[in-house]
From TrEMBL:
This is Putative glutathione S-transferase. GO terms for cellular component: cytoplasm. The record marks Y248, Y291 as: Lowers pKa of active site Cys. It comes from Kribbella caucasensis. Glutathione binds at W93, R125, V126, T127, V128. The lineage of its organism: Bacteria, Bacillati, Actinomycetota, Actinomycetes, Propionibacteriales. SUPFAM superfamilies: GST C-terminal domain-like, Thioredoxin-like. The active site is at C60, Y190. One of its GO terms (molecular function) is glutathione transferase activity. Residues 167-291 form the GST C-terminal domain.
Length: 315
């Protein structure tokens, strides 16, 4: 089985550089388009409940963020959800979990079909999460950092009562923390796993654990990263932490220590896991099968480890 072309994202020095997001349209209350219309001149699509479909893999940490935020904010009826198979083939993410191997709303077998309908020349990796317009079948966005922010800020009219405010009015500290966590932790584990030189791997490894050490200290005297309230930053860190011991510690060689060996981070991650929308959206089977089977240059045998025991998250 041919895998996704990760080699295209490896630099001459062996450092892995994530590809840019191809589709960066936004669904916004500022859109000048009428309901049912496409994007306006600024690339803004109208906020329209029932129109858009969020495509995710439960294995993917970037997609997992959007699943958690959608559920926390009560947007299940406003934005429908499609879940792809955790195992990709040469055409990418597949809807083989659905009857007849096709998404029942979009009528496609591969997410790549929507990508190519939107940009027939696209030859990069097909990524999740992606939001697809059910009216035209076109990809609105695969800009995963912006997707969750927009769910919080642009879809407020459709939030459930007493939904958490995940994006504070003053975003200065939030945005700085998000950037640091992305560079060293969220993307840092991938920079370790996909490095093709010892130097690039060790640089990413050192930055990862330096940042985890800082976060361990930060969580000594607070419940959440920014104090007493859950924010977008917590969700972004959680989706990496929940995969750490199961995947990143061994598969990506992030093995200075396990998450369970960071007392504050481990306690924090378990607190989040017990919250609504967090643990209930974690699928360790899909997570492990995706990483260990899909990345055949890292794990050519395709053997999926039995451990670690997920019951530790419930203790």
């Amino acid at each position: 089985m041919t895998r996704a072309p990760f080699a295209k994202e490896s630099s001459s020095t062996g450092e892995w550089k994530r590809q840019a997001n191809r589709f960066t349209g936004r669904i916004s209350t500022a859109s000048k388009s009428a309901p049912g219309e496409g994007p306006d001149a600024d690339g803004l699509w109208p906020v329209e409940p029932g129109r858009y479909r969020l495509i995710v893999s439960l294995a993917c940490p970037w997609a997992h963020r959007s699943v958690i935020v959608r559920k926390l904010l009560g947007l299940e009826d406003a934005i429908s959800l499609a879940i792809v198979d955790p195992i990709r083939d040469e055409r990418g993410w597949r809807f083989t979990l659905d009857p007849d191997g096709k998404d029942p709303v979009l009528g496609i077998g591969y997410l790549s079909e929507a990508y190519l309908a939107t940009d027939p020349q696209y030859d990069g990796r097909v990524t999740v999460p992606a939001i697809v317009d059910t009216v035209t079948g076109l990809v609105v966005t695969n800009d995963y950092p912006q997707i969750t922010l927009d769910l919080s800020t642009e879809w407020r009219a459709y939030h459930r009562n007493h939904a958490p405010q995940l994006v504070p009015a003053d975003r200065t500290e939030l945005d700085q923390l998000i950037a640091e966590i992305y560079a060293d932790v969220n993307n840092g584990v991938y920079r370790c796993g996909f490095a093709t030189s010892q130097e690039a791997y060790e640089a990413a490894y050192d930055a990862l654990f330096a940042r985890l050490d800082e976060l361990e200290i930060r969580l000594m005297d607070r419940e959440y990263l920014l104090g007493d309230s859950l924010t977008e930053a917590d969700i972004r860190l959680f989706t990496t932490l929940v995969r750490f011991d199961a995947v990143y510690h061994g598969h990506f060689k992030c093995n200075r220590q396990k998450l369970t060996e960071f007392p504050n981070l481990w306690a924090y991650a378990r607190r989040l896991y017990r919250r609504p929308a967090f643990g209930e959206t974690v699928d360790f089977d899909q997570i492990k099968r995706h990483y260990y089977v899909t990345h055949d240059t890292i794990n050519p045998t395709g053997i999926v480890p039995k451990g670690p025991d997920p019951r530790a998250w419930e203790s």
